[in-house]
Recover the amino acids of this structure.
């Protein structure tokens, strides 16, 4: 999900008719633009991740005009030839192999427009462009450039120019090290020997994709003609983005001109490539999936509403998908368009009709039994987070190694608990002002390491309990454990053990079927001190069952 | 008068004394004393004065601010006169949610405003001294508790509404013996009825000749600290029961997953933004797991590269098994559904899972890095989109307690069509409850499923907050024993 901000007046001008706020709020969410906020001046729209063509006012207006029946079918790009060329050198192949381009003439820039354009560029970079790795967009003032262009890869210190936002010349290596954008996007060129560069006919640097443009080509409110360069790792992806931009410019009254890109071996591609994608869907298949009974011709109309050209032929609906849509992989994607055209809230929900036997898992049944018994033994149930930190585990002198997160949001939340007791002690440490006795338990998930398995770990449910009060002791906690074990009909033995976290001579391992299943004991005063507890505590914890 | 009554009566003083102190002096438990007193009061032998006192104590958050100062105060002091917003926050040492709290209050209190210049935000102070009254109140309450009447009501209200202070009521009883009681004591012979039925009375049958004393209903209730179920788990149990009731079988899955199950099997391309570090927790130790099902691995490879045999174009890239074996914390319970389908791809099936998921979200009142999802799938011949909407509607109404439901298109890499469910909750209006859809053919083919599968994932924490009247998602998993004792579902 991406949120964009849209100037409402400008947007309604693009739509070409007045639409009330209420109607906007009701209609836009039905075409994948959820309205997050709406004021006199602006709208905040949340766009779903599959629709980069909706990241601008122009794109949303185009979709809305279709949905409201004002325009039908796929909009066409009226292309002229600019006569400009980009020569692509073989050196870019291992670096950033693809470039596409177009020329935009006669755009009327009005207040606030540039902001919308920058927003589109930024959001396309972020989502469709995968942070510029897959697609990067350069928008330049055409009038300061001379054709023809060269796209090649050079040594980092071979070329220098004044990057946008700076006043002095820097070479490419310096830009990556010192320029804000250079540092931000340096990862896209990590490990590359050569860096990509676009030069114009005079040998002037146009841009250093995907990092920064030359300050010379900066676009202002006075700019009327643009030169676009889009580079990336995947031809289809850069071409979709270019088509999105060209359609948006055309919707603002600009004329669009193509650029010839000459790839190695003299393979010439005129960009933007505007060949629509053909895809077909069986109309019975669509009806069957949606659970409705539309005629093929009705489906054609619904697709046209979604700005897709369609005709009915035999049992098929044949479509041509406009080049600014890159989200069609399979005919089910067309079926969704039919459903959106139909209107999600026009479907009559159908009551469930199959019969299957419902059941709680054996794990849940067991966990619930254990919870009931612990409550019967007088313990108060807690439910705490599985995510915790190494410090809490250390304070409880936990010997098991936890699963450690490599990108924690904070140091307080950097691992998963291998046992619950440390978290219960932590909880008690926050309740020293509340009345005692405090007897708490949790039947919850923990994650322990288990080498050689599919996930190298084992998720399991443990039952842990702590009793804290002036007379808490081993005898009390063992009695509770025994009652619960008997209630669960589990045979166990206690075996004396020595553990740092318990008082010596007052702790034991719980042995089930010859294996250690848990432990019970009086919490060591040094552990209590770590948690700031001044009440004696006795605890037990054992494995209930593994998640299979 | 029985033995216990005369014991109490003779011990009580002629001036008022607190009941708990009296109990200790007499050597009786408080509840035993009060049950005896209840009868004595009815006979006007004892006078009971009820006193209700209100106390304020700090919540865990409040206690934290006691130590570290209110976040807005810390921010105020860090700023000086004017400072870049980000620098000020850093200087004040604010972390996590404190940032938003500090900003919200510093502005609300009119201490400072935010100014934007050259695309950068600055914090500019508007007053020279910040009012410290609330801080004083917090200090006054301190680590223990303070009687309400000693505190400024206005500040207290503000602190309570911020969730920093909790008010509790304590009812105390004061007792003294009355003239009639003294008289009765003197006339020990006077027998005024049975206070406590004893085994001896039952054996001898002497009870039949006597009257039982009545209890006063006000003094009979003594608070008990019982063991009880956690309120949020009760909510989750109810959801599980409802799903079992309509024919769903429960499933579970591991919390640490391979990227394979969490994403690749779900047809999420390996360069999908949701796979990046800001959307998923990666595991450092241990780093990699393994893929056990070789056939599935081959099929997933094919579906990503060219769509397999489904007629899909696939994502058109070279799928990399080394990325797929990396370990992550489960970010969606759909991983559990995928595992269930791999175990048994045959219809008909209806499966659900209520499970923990993890995402590195910004933490605030509505988001935490660990949360619960409720996932379900319906696997059968002839399942349709309309039927999916039928399930969603019934969840909204039967499970979320909504009065109406509506739908809008959405996007998930593994479903098409994809839909979002909105539920109209009484008193709350429309809220987003979850996402759903029909699993994509690329995913189903890899898993060997030959019939349509309806799937949905509900964000049940939001629902729980509404149903339980909890304003902060973290309170669902509270460690506050007072809240655990007092709150019920």
């Amino acid at each position: 999900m991406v949120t964009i901000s849209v100037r409402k007046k400008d947007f309604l001008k693009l739509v070409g008719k007045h639409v009330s706020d209420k109607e906007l709020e009701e209609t836009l969410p039905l075409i994948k633009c959820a309205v997050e906020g709406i004021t006199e001046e602006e709208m905040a729209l949340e766009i779903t991740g599959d629709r980069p063509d909706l990241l601008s006012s122009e794109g949303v207006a185009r979709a809305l005009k279709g949905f409201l029946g004002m325009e039908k079918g796929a909009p066409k790009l009226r292309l002229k030839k600019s006569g400009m060329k980009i020569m692509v050198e073989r050196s870019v192949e291992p670096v950033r192999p693809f470039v596409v381009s177009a020329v935009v003439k006669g755009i009327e820039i009005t207040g606030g427009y540039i902001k919308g354009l920058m927003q589109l560029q930024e959001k396309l970079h972020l989502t469709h462009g995968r942070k510029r790795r897959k697609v990067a967009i350069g928008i330049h003032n055409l009038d300061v450039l001379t054709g023809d262009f060269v796209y090649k890869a050079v040594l980092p210190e071979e070329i220098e120019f004044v990057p946008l936002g700076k006043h002095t010349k820097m070479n490419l290596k310096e830009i990556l090290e010192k320029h804000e954008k250079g540092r931000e996007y340096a990862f896209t060129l990590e490990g590359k020997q050569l860096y990509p560069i676009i030069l114009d006919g005079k040998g002037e640097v146009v841009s250093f994709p995907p990092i920064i443009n030359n300050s010379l080509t900066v676009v202002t409110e006075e700019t009327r003609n643009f030169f676009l360069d889009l580079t990336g790792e995947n031809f289809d992806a850069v071409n979709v983005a270019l088509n999105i931009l060209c359609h948006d410019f055309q919707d603002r009254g600009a004329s669009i001109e193509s650029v010839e890109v000459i790839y190695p071996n003299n393979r010439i591609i005129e960009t933007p490539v505007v060949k629509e994608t053909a895809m077909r869907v069986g109309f019975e298949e669509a009806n069957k999936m949606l659970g409705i009974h539309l005629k093929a011709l009705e489906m054609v109309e619904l697709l046209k509403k979604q700005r897709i050209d369609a005709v009915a032929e035999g049992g098929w609906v044949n479509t041509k998908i406009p080049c600014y849509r890159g989200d069609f992989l399979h005919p089910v994607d067309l079926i969704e368009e039919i459903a959106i055209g139909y209107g999600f809230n026009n479907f009559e929900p159908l009551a469930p009709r199959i019969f299957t036997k419902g059941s709680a898992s054996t794990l849940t049944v067991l966990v619930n039994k254990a919870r009931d018994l612990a409550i019967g033994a007088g313990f108060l149930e807690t439910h705490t987070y599985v995510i915790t930190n190494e410090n809490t585990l250390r304070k409880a002198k936990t010997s098991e190694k936890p699963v450690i997160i490599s990108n924690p949001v904070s140091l307080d939340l950097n691992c998963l608990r291998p046992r619950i007791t440390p978290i219960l002690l932590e909880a008690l440490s926050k309740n020293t002002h509340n009345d005692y006795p405090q007897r708490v338990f949790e039947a919850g998930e923990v994650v322990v390491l288990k080498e050689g398995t599919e996930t190298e770990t084992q998720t399991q449910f443990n039952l842990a309990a702590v009793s804290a009060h002036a007379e808490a002791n081993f005898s009390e906690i063992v009695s509770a454990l025994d009652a619960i074990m008997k209630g669960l009909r589990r045979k166990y033995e206690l075996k004396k053990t020595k553990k740092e976290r318990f008082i010596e001579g007052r702790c034991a391992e719980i042995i089930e079927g010859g294996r250690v299943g848990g432990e019970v004991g009086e919490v060591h005063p040094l552990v209590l001190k770590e948690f700031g507890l001044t009440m004696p505590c006795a605890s037990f914890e054992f494995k209930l069952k593994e998640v299979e | 008068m029985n033995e216990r009554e005369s014991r109490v009566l003779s011990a009580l003083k002629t001036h008022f004394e607190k009941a708990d102190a009296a109990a200790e002096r007499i050597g009786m438990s408080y509840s035993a004393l009060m049950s005896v007193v209840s009868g004595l009061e009815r006979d006007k032998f004892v006078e009971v004065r009820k006193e209700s006192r209100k106390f304020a104590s700090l919540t865990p958050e409040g206690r934290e601010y006691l130590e570290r100062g209110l976040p807005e105060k810390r921010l105020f002091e860090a700023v000086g006169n004017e400072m870049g917003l980000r620098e000020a926050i850093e200087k004040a040492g604010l972390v996590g949610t404190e940032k938003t709290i500090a900003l919200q209050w510093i502005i609300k209190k009119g201490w400072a405003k935010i100014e934007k210049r050259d695309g950068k935000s600055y914090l500019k102070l508007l007053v020279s001294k910040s009012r410290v009254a609330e801080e004083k109140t917090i200090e006054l309450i301190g680590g223990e508790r303070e009687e309400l009447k000693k505190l400024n009501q206005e500040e207290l209200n503000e602190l309570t509404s911020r969730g920093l202070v909790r008010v509790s009521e304590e009812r105390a009883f004061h007792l003294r013996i009355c003239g009639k009681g003294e008289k009765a004591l003197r006339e020990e012979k006077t027998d005024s009825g049975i206070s406590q039925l004893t085994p001896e009375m039952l054996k001898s049958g002497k009870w039949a000749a006597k009257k039982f004393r009545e209890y006063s209903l006000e003094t009979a209730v003594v608070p008990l600290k019982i063991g009880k179920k956690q309120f949020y788990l009760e909510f989750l149990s109810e959801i599980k029961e409802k799903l079992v009731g309509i024919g769903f079988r429960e499933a579970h899955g591991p919390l640490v997953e391979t990227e394979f199950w969490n994403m690749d099997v779900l047809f999420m391309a390996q360069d999908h933004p949701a796979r990046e570090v800001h959307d998923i927790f990666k595991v450092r130790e241990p780093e990699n797991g393994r893929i056990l099902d070789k056939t599935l691995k081959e099929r997933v490879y094919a579906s990503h590269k060219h769509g397999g045999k489904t007629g899909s174009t696939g994502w058109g890239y070279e799928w990399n098994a080394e990325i797929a074996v990396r370990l992550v914390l489960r970010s969606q319970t759909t991983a559990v559904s995928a595992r269930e389908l791999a175990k048994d791809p045959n219809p008909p099936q209806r499966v659900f899972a209520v499970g923990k998921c993890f995402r590195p979200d910004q933490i605030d009142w509505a988001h935490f890095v660990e949360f619960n999802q409720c996932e379900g799938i319906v696997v059968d011949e002839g399942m349709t989109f309309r039927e999916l909407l039928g399930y969603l509607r019934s969840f909204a109404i039967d499970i979320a307690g909504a009065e109406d439901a509506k739908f809008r298109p959405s996007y998930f890499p593994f479903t098409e069509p994809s839909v979002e469910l909105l539920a109209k909750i009484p008193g709350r209006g429309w809220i987003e409850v979850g996402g759903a859809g029909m699993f994509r053919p690329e995913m189903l083919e890899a898993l060997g499923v030959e019939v349509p599968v309806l799937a949905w994932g509900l964000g049940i924490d939001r629902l729980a907050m509404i149903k339980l009247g909890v304003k902060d998602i973290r309170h669902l998993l509270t460690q506050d024993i007072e809240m655990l004792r007092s709150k019920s579902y």
User: Anything to note?
Assistant: The longest strand of chain A covers residues 438-449.
